[in-house]
Amino acid sequence: MKIGLFIPCFMNELYPDASMDTLTILENLGLDVVYPMEQTCCGQAQANTGCSHEASVLAKRFLKIFKDYDYVVAPSGSCVAMVRENYAQWLEGEEGFEHLKKNTYEITEFLHDIIKPENLKFSFSFPHKVSIHNSCHAHRELHMASMSEKNEPEFSKIKTILNLIEGIELLEPSRKDECCGFGGTFAVSEEAVSTAMGIDKVNDHINTGAKFITGVDMSCLMHMQGLIDRQKLPIKTLHIVQILAGGK
Amino acid sequence: MGHPELAEKFIANDERMHWHDKALWFVRAKRDNASKSVDEWEKLRKVASQIKAHTLDKLDYYLEEFEKNATAKGLHVHWAKDAKEHNEIVLRLLLNNGAKKLVKSKSMLTEECHLNPYLEEHGIEVVDTDLGERIVQLRKEPPSHIVLPAIHLKKEDVGTTFEEFLGTKKGNSDPTYLTRAARAHLREKFLGADAAMTGVNFGIAETGGVVVCTNEGNADLGASLPKLHIASMGIEKIIPRLKDLAVFTRLLARSATGQPITSYTSHFHAPIIDGQMHIIIVDNGRSAIIGSKDFKSSLQCIRCGACINTCPIYRRSGGYSYGYTIPGPIGSTLGASKDLRANKTLPFACSLCASCSNVCPVQINLHQQLYKHRQSVVAQKLLGFQKHTILKIATWVMKYPLLMDISGKLARAIVPKLPRSIVYSKVNLWGKKRELPPFPKNSFKELYKQRKGK
Ligand code: SF4
Predict the structure, then answer these.
(1) Residue at which a domain ends, from A81, A115, A149
(2) Of the CATH numbers 3.40.50, 1.10.287, 1.10.1060, 1.10.3470, which one belongs to the domain with range B1-37+294-383?
(3) Residues of chain B contacting A35 with CB distance shorter than 8 Å
(4) Adjacency order of strands within the sheet including B228-234
(5) Is the pTM of the predicted complex or chain greater than 0.90?
(6) A99 and A190 belong to one structural domain
(7) Taking CB atoms and an 8 Å cutoff, what residues of chain A touch B395?
């Protein structure tokens, strides 16, 4: 099983440690993981701003770089959703696209669906209260947990995986899957709404009594951490890989 | 002003913004409970969506069926290609019958056509009889929500409005007291009316009748007292058969307010004795939307308002921030379809969270439509030069890994050394209320290379 590691562009630049944690988790499972050096960006910001031409350029690049791996794994629900849900507009019918679309996974989802919980063992404990942040694209596009709007059985791949860690106590905010307001370029083009949503979400997480907020999208966490730091609020964000790689 | 600026104004009053958010979240929570009490909820949504999609595909056939069957029942059917024709037909019918006083139950279509000011200019008194609509009408405001037109107002605001217009006691904002005052006021208007207008929730092709859903019974009172009843209906309100109706009535009120059914679900299949009933079927830009593959399904909408209640942006920016007759996700897609230039900020008044698409009882892919409208905004060069240029440059950089590496390295080296006043200057919208993450020394790629010894 050959895995292409896909690290979102801003994580490569700003979150090298969490990116490294992603690699470590996969390598610790004995998997053959390669980080293709020529990768840059999936084009999500362009696509979400309507810049279809620019997005298509990056989508085509992405396909070329990643099409020959058995799986593509990334520590980001929204970048994975970009590949699986939005690339078709530009790549439908291209050689290798169906394979890429089917085999690109967010890392928690990959651990859950492909490696499977029964084959996972974490040799450390994480004795903390952690509030789960359900990022919208992972949640509603990748369907990583049951959605509050739908009449469907309860499940959460994130909780299933985290619950394998000894001592961890998982909590959820009262509005368990309301958007935090990051939204890509929305964070600046609708700054006032974005930050209002973010503060509400952070407070909802704080009210659970948790010490940490965790989720599968660094972008949402970066947005919330930015608000937390400015207002000096008593909670801290951690990408799920930062917990899964051994906790700190 | 576009959505971001209007939203910022609404948000500036933090207390009211949070009150608005909570009021609507409460409705959303009721909707969740109601939808979970129906085991086959998701299946119902699917069937409803299929019925609507089928009907839109064969709309010409069903509209003609409707006209034929309605006419056979003694109803008069009129066709209006746009708002102007619609308003002219209404005025003509009123004048022909010597009607000067009109009572009107809720109809977003008449809002869309700006009927009230048109009729008032021609000397007709128009009274909106839905309580929420009457409140905003007295205040000379448009509705801020399609189901809850006065949701932006607190009971104290209603109290002062009634004080001014209905002579209620100063400082009394007791809801029961105010509702009674409104009822007494509206009863008089009903009794003195020469004509009534209603909207239409469903037009049944098979029977030629229309169905109107309200909670206050105001449509029924209006349509039963005066001898002239005019119902305005968008072309998309048609459903094929009477038996299809139950699918929608089961979904509508549960989605809208969490009630199992609206208090009144009234079927109008004939004029009252010695009376006349007219139905105006309005296009006003709808058939153009039917012709667009990406946005056609927006016409499946049954105006339940669920997407508006769940929208985390709407709840915090208020109905007026959209500057369009219908706010929220459905208003943004319809508004963008209708006039992209005027509504160019609406497709971006969305974080693409997709909650709207999940609550929609007829499964409209609302967030995907807003995503698609953004591409039209760019294609029509309405995005703004600066934003587009930044993304073009970013894309150009991302085409060359080396360029990305160099830019990243430079940023990581320079930004931490800059004084705070420069990093957090006015142009940094991110930094207005948020800190930037700390810039690390190395990128992941650099660490990876080091580790692999390359
Ligand atoms: S788009 Fe769907 S959720 Fe929104 S008002 Fe229409 S039917 Fe209701």
Answers:
(1) A115
(2) 1.10.1060
(3) 445, 448
(4) B76-80, B276-282, B228-234, B195-198, B101-104, B125-128
(5) yes
(6) no
(7) 43, 46, 51, 54, 57-58
